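Internal QA ticket QA-208
Title: Verify multi-chain structure generation after dependency bump
Assignee: T.L.

Test input:
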Amino acid sequence: MIDDRTGQWETVIGLEVHAQVVSKAKLFSGAATEFGAEPNTQVSPVDAAFPGMLPVINRCCVEQAVKTGLGLDAEIRLASVFERKNYFYPDLPPGYQISQYQQPVVGPGRLVLDMPDGTSREIGITRLHLEQDAGKSLHDQHPSLTYVDLNRAGVALMEIVSEPDLRSAEEAAIYLRKLRSILRYLGTCDGNMEEGSLRCDCNVSVRRAGEPYGTRCEIKNLNSIRYVMQAIEYEARRQIEVLEEGGTIEQQTRLFDAGRGVTRPMRSKEEAHDYRYFPDPDLLPLTLDPQWIAGLRAELPELPDAKKARFVLEHGLSRDDAAVLVAERETALFFEQVAEGRDTKLAANWVMGDLFGALNRLGVGIEQSPVTAAQLGGLLDLIADGTISGRLAKEVFAEMVATGADPGEIVEVKGLRQVTDSSAIEAAIDAVLAAQAEKVAEYRAGRDKLYGFFVGQIMRATHGKANPRLVNQLLRKKLTA
Amino acid sequence: MSDSALLALTLAEARDGLLHKSFSARELAAAYNKAVEEAEPLNAYITPTPERALEMADAADQRLARGEALPLDGIPIAVKDLYCTKGVLTTAASHILDGFRPPYESTVSEKLWQSGAVMLGKTNLDEFAMGSSSTTGYYGAVENPWRLSGDNRPLVPGGSSGGSAAAVAARAALAATGTDTGGSIRQPASFCGIVGLKPTYGRCSRWGVVAYASSLDHPGPMTRTVRDAAIMLRAMSGHDPRDATSAPVPVPDYEAALTGDIRGLRVGIPQEYRADGIPAEIEALWQQGADWLRAAGAELVEISLPTIKYALPTYYIIAPAEASSNLARYDGVRFGLRVEGNSLDEMYELTRAAGFGAEVRRRVLIGTYVLSAGYYNAYYLKAQRVRALMIRDFATAFEKVDCILAPTAPSAAFAIGEKTEDPIAMYLNDVFTVPANLAGVPAISVPAGLSADGLPLGLQIMGRAFDEETVLRVAGVLENAARFRHLPSFVAGCGQ
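Actual output:
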């Protein structure tokens, strides 16, 4: 809700996400899809729309779309149709984009958002369909000419359309993060917004509470969650201002100017293209075998919501901790490997505390972590079997981050092994108590607080290696003797 | 053997002669290269490839000498210039493809070369295969080698595969490839007195064939005899994973289907073909054809294809709709003609205005219109529904009959320029051929007689999907009965 001069306004948002399908080849040609290749090196005659060239559907892309549909708890359609969306542009070689229009491969589904207040909210997914990406027009390479790079032309995209169920920029951001997380879990889209693998169109309208939906504007092609939030916030404000001035909202397609943080009109409804959609006669309707779909469903990986529930139930983690650990597939896998057969709460604390801290300082993701899950697990084992104390473990971990070495090796090389020999500890205690005879007398006279001082002195004398439990045990005995 | 004797051979005879070393592939190719030159006034070829013909013939001779002959080894054929041929100018008879040399070979032509066939050149056609006269192309009109008796006006060879038809009829090719979207193989075959076969949709790959209307385009052979069509079809057919509409079905030995025995076969006579008052001589020929088949032991059955009266309007919605989209790629950006403009839109407009001829522009406009918002349901969607009904009509008919006999075209060849001012009159040429394209069923035209003024007329056999064997067998019987031995006014190698 946005409060303004004339009362409360509600922002209504629906998102259309274009997610690039993880696939070696394009949707209808065998050309490669690798990001960052030299311009026009990943183009087949099909992608360049040479005469007589025909599209053939890539089975892998269909599989990815179906998996994504299953991950969104959506209806998988056994028959769907590819249509041609006709318009002229130099980065669209055939003069039409092959897309699914009236009969998409995936029908209604849903996505559950974890809200900051601990509640969940379900957002409807209207549909998911497969379509081709266009090439790229480069307007900045020459003062008067436009260059065209067709590497991206024909790459498979999934367009994932939400219902207008989102109510704020923050919700839109939570939705996008959750969707990206699911796509990454499924391995169907790498979710890399910087490389354009995930792009978003936002449909934004405003209304007063309880009123029907207002006229919407579509903001095209946003490539970061931050921009999505800024664009929605700006656009909602703009619409409210227009309405409060007594104006009306014109249905428009708008562009977001990231530099100025504003949206600007691109074209109005009247200027909208007539895309002349019709079923692509080069392609037969796509029909799927229910058995094949069942097979994909059976092989679906555990998704974040299920994983989170399991972490709470099996590992006794708090909902918040579980939510943090499952947000990224790599983090969850890392954690599970560390926790396997170990104290899971300790594992969670180490992953979320020391490891995340180290990764933050290094500015890298968990995929580039200098400490492997096996190494961190090894460190936890050294704590568990008493080889090192928890305090020393921090020191060992810092060394692991710096060198990438195994914890056992660091402990040996640096001589950090905990002293568990009671006679050695006893000797240290005796030495400390002898040196501090005055304080011992004070303690015995009732100054209990001095106990901690003695422990500190003993640990210092043993360079921190004395087993704290043994120190306690022996010290009490000696002080009460 | 003399050149004229070589040129008079059918494909089957030439194949046998090559196998028996009666002559070499090089001799045959040389004779045909000369015939192509001699036939130049017909304008049947856009690009002859005589050197390539000799090279391919030499390779065939080597295989023949080693006793490793391929099915079409040394057979000189022409390729409609709608098929992309690697490194050889491919024009679709359009200015807009200026200088286009494909970096790939169409599946069907590739299959022919792999069968040992020898390439004579690329034949002329209506621009982008849009037409029934082979007069709309950028490279000028094709002339029919036939003339009216006592009248020397040049006639059209029909279209759009008019260059292929004229070349085969004039003995400037032993056989040729054509494409048939609404009759473009069968109608010119009828006009030129040769055999033209449109196979089942999906039988011959469309990969590498410049698209006119994807759901209606059928590559197929054009030959002098039914047997030659059977031989060519076998080489041209087969599943192609690069064409999603290509059918994964086995290819039979079509020549073996030519048993001449049609006893007990049921042949349908569709009453609707009579409806529009067809010329008496066409009707008489059709009756004659029915009598021949009955005499050979077939049973004639009156059938009804009720929706066929809507075939032509249905075709002239669906074909232009697909064409308007298929031809969007000719935009001056990547290949062919570009006319520079002051803006992107101006470049598009100038390029396409200069690159496309009147008929192509007409169909692109019609197609754009019928797909437009607000008109889609009334035109395109309705046409698709009619098409679905028509497919059902054919299916119902084929429960009762094994094939259907009909005339190929409503007239014989007409003079060049005669119908160009009236597109509707031109479109009516396709009235008998279009139904088989909409239904996707195989259909063949066989020369069956001469018109009163001495021009060839064809009869058409349509069959069940993927049953080209029955179609060819019946066509063979018709061919034997008709004994069509007439020659056109112009025949290469006859010293005229």
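Spot checks passed. Chain A touches chain B through 29 residues (CB under 8 Å).
Status: verified.
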